[in-house]
Structure formats: C-alpha cells, structure tokens
Batch of 4 targets.
Target 1
Amino acid sequence: MLDVRRLRLLRELAHRGTIAAVAESLAFSPSAVSQQLSVLEREAGVPLLERTGRRVALTPAGRNLVRHAEAVLERLEQAGAELADARSGLAGPLRIGTYPSAARAIIPAALAALGREHPGLEPMVTEVDPAEVSALLRSGELDVALVHEYDFVPAEPAPGLATESLFTEAMYLAAPAPGTIADHRDSPWIVAPHGTLCHSMAVRACQATGYTPRIRHQIDDFGTVLALVAAGQGVALVPQLGVADAPLGVALSRLPMARRTRTAYRAGAARHPAVAAFVAALHTALPSDLRC
C-alpha cells in the first residue's frame, strides 16, 4: 500500500524540482525527504527517480504516479470538507493569503462579516505575492488565498489547486499629466520589485508598445508609488484598488488592460465550510464598483 505522506513528497518534488526545495517547504531535512522517497520507490516496486550527481528527475513511472497522487490528495480534501461540514459550527484557524492592496481594501470588511457569521473561526492573514501562493497552499501553510493576474501576465494552471473568479479591476497610468504608456518611452518608471507579477506586468506592458522601461524605483506599496509620482520621480501602472486618495500632482489615465483577482484553494476544498464561508464573506465585502 502506497503511503499518502510519501506521495505528497513526490508531488512536491515534481512541482519544486529539487529535494532541498521540498525539504524547505515542508520543514524536513533533505536526508529525510530522500529516505522517504526511497521507501516510496520500494513500495511502488519500480524506479520513480533518476539521480545524476545531485540532480533528481522523475521517471515516466514517477510522473504517472504524481498524476494519481494529485487525484488522491483531491479526494482527501473532499473527505475533509465533508467531515468538517458534519460538525456543528465552524471553529479553529483559517490561514488566508492575500496581496497588499486587497489586504487593505477588502480583507478587513470580509473578516468582520466572517466573524459575525462564524465567531468560532480564527482567521490568520498573511501578505504573500501571488507567485508564491501555489506552493504555500499545497504545503498546507495556507488554506485559501487571493491571487491576481494581468492581461500581460496570465496565470499558469497550478496542479493540485482550484480557483474561482472574484472581481476585475481597471488599470491606470499614474503620471504628472494624462497620457498613454507610449508617451513615456523616455520617462523614469516606478515598478514593483523584480520577481513579482506586478513587475512583469509593467515591463511587458511597456514592451508591447515597443520599448523596455527605464526603471528608477522598485516599490511594492501603491501609496508610496503614487507619492513618488507626485514628487516627480517617475510614472507607474497602478490598479484600481491602489489609486484611492491619489495625491495632488498625479493624473490617472485609464488603460485598456485589467487586473483580475481569484480565490484559490487546494483542489477538493471548495466545499470545505470554512473556505466557502470566507469566499462568501469576500463577496459581501466587495466595493460596489467591483461587484459583478
């Protein structure tokens, strides 16, 4: 009989690529991960890994087993959801991931609504870049999260996860005067830190008009970004949730592009009562101009 915990390790190796990354994500030592994967190979009776020096790759049999592992783990999530639904009342921690502008504009009202309906729940919010959400959900560090994508940075399907649409925002060019992205080929730009979706979006939006932006500042807080634009330090792309209370000296020009936000959770967890309750609270908390 194959051990589910070892199947989870194999699944994580398929997604993360190295034993060291699997060990770090699940708080194991690399040697413990290697040992457990070796036991799984003995249980399977066929080689699951190909080792070349320090590199490890999955064999065809290993990749096939990962597909079965995804299905098994999804069914276990469904079983956990049904068991939770059979209990009287919701209680205990609910680990929530969100990006900063949603954390400020939507999450407080959603938590207030959630608390009124389910006072026994203990929501625990962590700000996290959407690029990191998949790994945190699969490892169990998060139960549900808000993720976003841009027209120029579409989201890749994440094995083992499910998502549903929440809302769509307009995007704006923040500059000293009204204009378009094409008008600022020679302007300094203010973008999010390298490696974030927001950074990629700004760079690709400029490249779509024929140039690569000259980046001066890398800032992750839209309030600070707008203050820098007002101070003449550059121009920036800012989503609808980030443009509230723009300072004097900042012109906001709506662009033909959007940012879309979705809720994400482990496949099979959509009917978990705590996850469903939080998603319902999010819809209640949406500003009127973001509701479908």
Target 2
Amino acid sequence: MPNRRRRALSAALAVFMSAALISAAGGPAPAATLDYVGTYVWHGGEASFGGFSGIEISPDGSGFHVLSDRAWLYWGSIERDPQGVIRGMSIAGRAHLRDGKGVPLKPGYLGDSEGLAIGGDGRIWVSFEGLDRLAAYDDPDAAAIRQPRPPDLPGMRVNAGLEALAIRRDGGLIALPERSGGEARPFPVLQFSEGEWRRLTEIRRDPRWLPVGADLGPDGFFYLLERDFRGVLGFASRVRRMRLTEDGPRDEEILLESQPLQYDNLEGLAVWHDGQGIRLTMVSDDNFLILQRTELVEYRLRD
C-alpha cells in the first residue's frame, strides 16, 4: 500500500477511535471532522538543524518560523501544491538566540528553548525550561528582552518547565508547564500580560499525556498538543481543543489521537485558517538522533 494512503487510513482510524473513546466516557462526540492533509519529511545540512519544539505559520500558510531546543530560530517559505500539501521548505535565514547581554545561548540549562509565539507586531516570544523564563526578541539577532520570571509551580524542574506557549490577539501570552506535579493533578495555565504573570485556570491531566505545544486558533479555541512516550514503541500524540475561561475549560474535544510510531516526536503546533477550514501544522523534534526525523504533519478541521 502506498505510504501516503497508509498514513491517511491510519489517521482516519485514529480520529474514529478518539470519537469512540469520548462517546464511551459519557461525553459528547466531537462536532468536528478532521481530515489528514499530508506529511513532509524535512532535511537540513546545518549542524544546528533539528530538535524543533516550536512552530509558527504565516496566516496564508506560505511562511514559517521554527524553534529548536538548542536556541536556534529558523525561518523561510513553504512550497505547497494546489491542494495545499507541503512539497518543499526553503530556509531564508537562521539565528542563534542570545541572552540579555547579547551572548549566544549554549545548549542545555540556559539554552533549552521550547515554546514559540509571534505577535501581530512581529515580536518573537520564547519560553525556556532549565532556567525557566520568558524572553522577547524584537529581532532574531538582537539581545533578549528579559521578562519577569514565571511563578514556581508544582512539577516544574530541569527539562520539565514552560513547554507550551501561545499568544492571544491582544498580545497576552498563555503558557503551560510540561508536568503538573502528579498524574491526578491538573495542569496550571499561566497568563502573562502587561509584564505580569497570573494563574488563569487549569486543564485536566490524563495521566500519561504531557503538553508539548499550543496555539490559539482563529476560531477562538485553545489548541493543545500532547505527547505520550511509550519507550520502544515510540511516541503517540494527541490534540485537544477547548475554550479557556477563568471558570475552567469549556467545549473541550479530543480531535486527534495518533498511534505509537504513526508520527515522530511531534512537539510544535501552529493553527491557522487555510480558506477551507482550520489547519493544524505540527513539527517533530528529532532529538538530533539519526533514528528519528524532522517531519511536518498537517490536518484540516471542518466544523
């Protein structure tokens, strides 16, 4: 069976199983249809290429920014066919992110960049774990503009800090840590606005699933990409969407739950409108390992 057809059938099965699980649990079945669009395996020759944990897509789907977990930012253009399927990725530039003094960040404790969000004004926001913090960049080559440190949260530690980052239309940021401090403890949702942090709400945790990426869609929903590492069986991924309120999430749906090894280690999520529906674009972190790959996976959501 051709690889593309196999992936499409696997994706359809995953969506069907997710709907069945929600229905069996007593909740409403999703009101949306999720269509598999395509997968693009991306190769790069630079030593800094890989480890991508964050992604932003331009409103028309033709441009991208991706963030590696070693403090490198890449940007460029996307070639698509008439059906909107990715056929090529062209890198226009890359930058080694810097600290507040203008010194390039080293991989590890200070340079573990995880979350990426770009505002309507072009300002680039990056969340780091290791030394948990948020930094802003008016230009990729500029020194970081330091921001107030986020509050200490249960479960936050080295390699388990602010993992998912999204930006609202008003410029406020939403951030989630990778862990909550216990399998039965919900994930706290932080809001950063006008230089201040506050706890907005919390999101239910399903024991093995951990947040790795997030975005606020043009439909007003908050989209959360989660990952389950299953050892030798590889990674499974899922996407939830919900409306965030101070009284808790509303209208929550599990849109996608992949099978182990169906995709690589999906960590970054961008949500945009492609003219036919809401497009979900996800990018994988290959951990700079030869056995893994950098791939972009896309779905279209039709309500």
Target 3
Amino acid sequence: MKKFLYVSSMLVLLLVIRPASANVSLLIFGDSLSAGYGISQADTWVAEIERRWQQDYPEYSIINASISGDTTQGGLRRLAEVVERHQPDAVFIELGGNDGLRGFQIDSIRSNLSEMIHYLQNRDIHVALSQIEIPPNMGPRYTDQFRSLFADIAEQHNIELVPFFMLDIATDPGLMQSDGIHPNLQAQEAIADIMEPQLRAIAEQAASE
C-alpha cells in the first residue's frame, strides 16, 4: 500500500512539473529577412538562436520555415502543410514585407494574415506577429496604412506584436547587403541578440498554456 501511494505521489508530481519542463517548439514563418537571403542557413539569426537555446535552454527548440520572396498569400497557401510537418507549439509570423514593397492591397494583406492567425489559434497554437516596416516608396498614405495594419491585426486577434527587428539594423550600412534591403552576415548575431529574449518569452508563454 505504501509503495502504491509512493508511486501515485510521484506520478502526481511529474504531472505538476511537466509543463515547466516540457519541450516547446517555436516555428519562424517568414520571408528572406528570416530565411537568410544571401547567406548560409547555418549563419542566419534563427540558427544562432537555435545554438544558444541548445546550450542554455534545451527545453526550447526553434524551426525556420521561412522562404525568401514569400508573401502573405504564399504563406497562407503553405501554412497547413508546414504545421502538419512540424507540429509547432508556437508560430512567429514575419510576413508582409514583400507585399508592401509590391504595393499589394492593404485589405488583402490583412485578410491573409488574419486567416493564418485564425488557422493557428483554432489548433491551439500560440501566435505572435512581427511588426513590418517598408521604405516610403509607395507614398505616405500607403506607408502609414501598412504600418498600422500589424497593430490592428494583433489587437483584433489578441496576440503579441513584436517590434520590427530591422529598425536598428537597416540604418547601419555595415550591417546591410548592397541591395539595402537584406541584412548581411555581420548583422545576424545582432538580430539574434534582439530577437532571442522576445522569442524565448513567446516560447515560455506557449509552455504555460
């Protein structure tokens, strides 16, 4: 009887501590800024965070499902297959930049992002959205509408809006490729420094849900 009570107590203890120690996977669902355009996959800021987590936070894993050139429409088309393959606990959406640079309709961008978020939330997957900024090439009206779009979506769906990690990077020519759009190899560690604590907080939130 005592042995049974001991085993039962241990099972209860394991159930109590499991959420804190359970493995949590975070999927990065973005475009070239996260995919590492022009550099090796092993050198991207996502890969750098993965190395840090393997050493310091092995309970968390990060998956990079970003594709250079992707749009919100492309992301929406491929989301179900990516989720099915990786079964993430949380997803960080970093899409919209290519839409904005091409002047896509704001309502279309909004609809695509909202559908992605809705799909993930219906599957109890924690979602966070990146703010995206674009150059003012499309004019002040479009640029302002594009900028405010992301905060509106985050508020509508009650998800976290993560500040755009390129804000401080893009103003430093030493951290940018010659096209003036993509971060270079030297920028990847700096981006990892910016994003690691924010993504870890997202993983922690997913673990607690």
Target 4
Amino acid sequence: MLGFSCRVFVLSVLLASTSGLAQDRRHVSEPGLPVSVCVTLTSSAQSKDDTQRLQDSINHCQPGAAVRLIAGAAGTGFVSGPLIMKSGVTLWLDRDAVLAATTNPLAYDNDGRCGTLDHKGNGCRPLILFNGTRGGGIVGEGIIDGQGGQPMIGHNETWWQLARRAQTEGSKQNIPRLIQIDHAHDITFYKVTLRNAPNFHMAMNAVQGATFWGVRIDTPAGARNTDGIDPGASQDVTIAHSFIRTGDDNVAIKAGSAGATRYISLIDNHFYWGHGLSIGSETVGGVSDVLVQGLTLDGTTSGLRIKSDASRGGLVSNVSFEHVCLRNNRRPIDFDTHYDAKAQGSKIPVFRDIVLRDVTGASGDLVMRGYDDTHQLSIMLDGVRFAPDAHWKIEFTEIQTGPGGVRPALLGKSQSAEVYAGCVGSWVTFPGS
C-alpha cells in the first residue's frame, strides 16, 4: 500500500444520499427530432467542398428550425471546413448521412500554425463552433467524421500522427477539435455519431444547460488527445444513454480558471476503450454536484477517476457514483491528488464527500490517494465489490462505510455480504460492432 494512512469509520446506518442534490437541476427527458426544416441538402459526388452551402443554410435558417442533411448516392457525403452555428438552429443528419471534416489544415488555420508543432498550441479553429448561442444543436442518426486518421492535405502524416509526434518531441500540436461549445445555453445532441476526431470530440466552456442523449463516440484507442465529452466551467449538463470509446478520457469534467463545473448527471452510459470517466485534471475552479448512475466501463485504463495536482488543484466535492460495473481496467478506482508527481504549486487538490454505492469491478489497482495528512481524501463506500485479487492502494484517506460494506476487506472494516459476481447481464456491445 502507498504509505497507508487511512482513517476508518464504520457506520451502522448509511449516511443520507447526496444524489438528490448532485445532479443536473433541469428536468431532462429524451429529446425529439425537429418539427420544422428550413432547408434539406443532399450529398453529391460532384461536390468536393460543401462548406459554403452548409454555412449559408445555417445563416439563413430561422431559430427553431433545422438544416437537414440526407445521403445521396451510395458513397457520397458532405465535406466541410469550419462551420459556425446560429442560435436556435439545429443541424439534422439523417441515417446514412456523413459530414466529413476536410483534412486541409489551411481551412482551420488561425495564424499560420494549424497542422504544425510549436510551444503554443491552439492554432486551429474547430470543425463546428457554438459560440454564445441559445438553443439548437446536432441531432439525427448520421455521422460526423473528423478524419483524424487520414493524411493531411499537403503533409505526409495524419492529425493523429502529428499529435503523437508532439508527445515524443515535447511540443504542442496545432490540431482542430471536432466540436467546440463556448458560452452557450440549452444545447442538444441526440443520437448522432461522432468519430475519428483529430483532437477532442466535444469541448465545452462556460455552457449553461446541455443534453447529450443516445450519442455515439467512436475513435481508436491509440488516437492521442481525442477526449469524448469535456464539460468545463459549465453547469446543468446531462449525458445519458450514450456509448463512448476513444483514445483519451471518455468523459472529462474539468474546472480551470474560467470557473466552476457543477450539477452534472451521467445516466445509463456505456464506456469502452479510453481513459475512463475522469474529473480533472484541472480542478482549480471547483467541481461539485456530480451524479453518475448506471455506468459500465469495459476496457478503460482507469475506471472512475479523479485526478489533479498542486499546479491545478481545487475542491472536488459532492460526487456520487451509483450502480457502476467495471472490468478489464488497470485502475478501476483511481482517485489521485498527485496526478503529475513532479507538479509544484500552492493549488492543493482536495477531494471530499465522494460516495461509491453499488460499484462492482474485477481485478486491478484501487487507488485512493489524498494530498497529505492535512488535505485528506474523504470517501464513503457502500456495496463496493471487487475480485479477490484487486489491490487497495490507499494514502491520506478517510473512509466511511455504509451497510453494503466493501470487498476485498480493508483494515478495520466489515466485508460486503455479497461477493464479486462480475455484473452478469450488464455488458452491452458497442452498437454496430
């Protein structure tokens, strides 16, 4: 164990559930498809660049209506550079419709750096931008393909190869995100598939109200920095009934200097390869009121993860993980206040009021690591069951238990009456696999 410094409190009764508060404050139900369409566009083999007609259609569409994309002849699709969404306008991709991101770095360029490495990064615009919008979103059973694995026009490598080279050379890559949502309100994503993003699939900053329902995110495990959905400095966000496999965090809830992230719900989702469900690593703005309920993590490197360090830490509190199934994870539980062991600074991360209830996993390392004796990690375990060969690694952590107990046993704690059974019947194959 990691210098075991664990304070144990066995409770005879379960503490009051925090999940009544730790969630999206809106009443969220399954969205529907638009009832009003302002224009319908059909893909064509003759069109090599659809950016202008797509942007013109968005610009002329009235709030409350949709730009509808439908598939033409087999093998055709829409090819586009950056698009800017308009308040109240929805992009509707019919089944079999494909919107492919151009692989030309010049199309995304901000200042001559897109498609290059340097020490700045952020040299590219995203494929789709929501900036200061209210309402609207992207819906339908079609596909947005970032083409991250295709060679860049004018280059001899792909976006993903550029990202990997940045890692080996200690540089920063200038690569476009697939979708960026900034300072927006009440955005909806429904049933759409996002795949092969060059960088993050969905990045959010200062968003008030967002719903992701039935979304599929599908990108290879080796594609660097291809996070699935990243809420940052945002409030009232629900991610539900979605399927995510990607090359980095499946979901990463962040709070940097732009402000707090809180009132987040993740309900009945399925994660596959990726780095797991993460909070952090930026937590300086504070993350709170998070409810995770009904989640499977099948093959993620980490499972339930909270990560930060002294260079970017803050308070993470009131987080509930309920009815979670894990398997094939290196670190099914990975709560670490020393994410970067070399980090220095005074922004000490504090994780408290964390609840794990009915969490079942297989083998692997179960890490709970507070910062120091003054900044303990505070957690409650209730019905937490792992395989007998799972290993607890605990440091500077105060643990409480509910009546469901915990397995494998911890020092001074009663075991769960239930043994590890592997969550039989909970596993779902990625749709279309």
